[in-house]
Structure prediction request, 501 residues.
Amino acid sequence: MYRVPGPRPSLLLVATALGLLLALPACDCNNGTTPPGDMGPDIDGKPTDAVVEGGTPASAHGILGRHSALAAASGTLFVSAYEVRYGDLVLVSANTSDISKVTEQVVDGVPTTTSPPSPGAYRDGITAEGDDVGQDTDIVVDSGGEPMISYLDVTNRSVKFASRSAGKWTVHTVQQPAGAKEVVGRYTSLTLVDGKPALAYLALNIDGGSGVFNSELRWAAASKARPTAPADWTITTIASGQMSCQGLCASDEACVVQQDGSSLCQKTGTGCSPQCLTDEACVNGACVAILPDTKLVDIPVATGLWPAAVVAGSTPVVLFYDRVKGNLMAATQSSGTWTTSIIDGSATDRVGAFCSAVVDSASTIHVAYQDETAYALLYAQVDPATLSTKLKETIDDGVRPDGTHPVGADSALVVEPSGKVRVVYQDAQNADLLTAVRDGPNSWTPKTASDPDLGRLLKGGARGYGFYSDLVVEGGKVYGSTFYFDPSATPKGGLELFEVQ
Prediction:
């Protein structure tokens, strides 16, 4: 993902590069010399931007900012983020009057102790590892100005929820996995429905029997404004589908590709002649095509990726990507039953990756998403009542003077006070964070054809920007957060807050 020259990579290559660079375990992976909270100027020359990095002491946090999300209220920015060294969920806060001054509060991941060695330090100086928590976060602020966070508990493969009141956090598990390989809580998206938290999240690796594994996009709705236990949530299934069995089969099985493109685990055997190729296995005396196990990180081929939960009027709507069929989908609930509709996608195009959504004052839903076939960034407006598409546009086709760039990853949208829609997204070729504004129908500016960034560069240069980006409007201004990666520096990444001028 970092300054890749030459022709555009495949999505697998992009996802693999991101995984190899960023999918680090909860460990002491940062031996940097930059002190926590160092606020140096960045590429755009604004010294007011906040850079949150890690430090060297064992009691300091490691790389912070992956899996982050942004919310705001009453002049305060709140960022939920994952800390790599210990695997903690951390809340980063900053006042909009000076976003260079940040505070960090560990929400979950620290083992309980009655005698912390250094009260006031990061984790109160506790260096013992706790559960690995805090991936796939989302954050909202309740009516009282307090943050609420949804996130994945990696250790227990569960989805969790945390809420703060009077400076104290209450944390509990919303749902645990039912099977030995099931993971519950990927890609959480949190919102408030009538003042009560509700979240969409993906459950993966559900054993469907007969060698089949499924995925489910689920919805957990709280019965009270401050839920504190699993019993406070009602969980329903929005959408489901069979997913790839790659990496999920037993040691005496192989993930066999079926004629319709699906896959299932089947027992392997002997007696095949000639010997099967590396991407084949001997099943029932014949060599068949398989999906071999791999350690490379890829985006799962599943239904329900990147859910974006919004509320239009009083109606919750969830946008998501069905990567099995290649469609951008929308779902709404009535009397406990979910209805889904295809927003975009066809037999030849695969669209909907990295989808994000926002609702305007007229209850129109604005969606940004990636064309996974062309690696372009697309835009749609959706009617929440009918789940019909009002219009579709291309924000960025990736065409540049040096060739076509893969664009559109980790997009985020806001409606500015002027009523215009602003988007941020990544150019994966250069690992730059770009921004564009919709000035009218099919008009996303700036658009300078001779410029390698179309005149849209927001963050770039020596660092790789544009990971886990988000936007909010607060006090009539637009603020953003993003994670950067810098392989030549120590530490090698961090969270950055910024104001969009």
User: Anything to note?
Assistant: The helical segments are 11-22. The longest strand covers residues 196-209. The longest helix spans residues 11-22. The mean pLDDT is 88.
